[in-house]
Amino acid sequence: TAILKGPEDKVNLTCSHTVSSYDTILWYQQSAQNTALKLIGYVRYTSPMVEDSFKGRFDVSGDAAANKMAYLHFPKVTEAEDSAVYFCAASEAQCFTIPSLLYKNPL
């Protein structure tokens, strides 16, 4: 779906899924200038997280586990790179720690 908005306009995108075990919805941006997918943020259960480079420009919200929905909000379109393709993805959250990365080994 294409959405045409002007400067200062608000934009709200919605994403949903139907996989019962998925509890996380992630939002990505792919701009014309840089075709790599950039993680904007995600909702795990009902807890939102926005990457530092997108804070202040985007908000995420929703309930990825019970309602299976998440939202990406642009309070206002302000930058040329906001003109981009936006993707959402759903998954099971997997959290783990690699102990060897937690400590610096003295030389």
From TrEMBL:
Domain Ig-like per the UniProt entry, residue ranges: 1-91
InterPro entries: Ig-like_dom (IPR007110), Ig-like_dom_sf (IPR036179), Ig-like_fold (IPR013783), Ig_V-set (IPR013106), TCR_beta_variable (IPR050413)
Gene3D superfamilies for the chain: Immunoglobulins
Keyword set includes Isomerase: no
Protein name as it appears in the record: Ig-like domain-containing protein
Superkingdom, natural source: Eukaryota
Cellular compartments per GO CC: plasma membrane
PANTHER family in the cross-refs: T CELL RECEPTOR BETA VARIABLE 19, T-CELL RECEPTOR BETA CHAIN
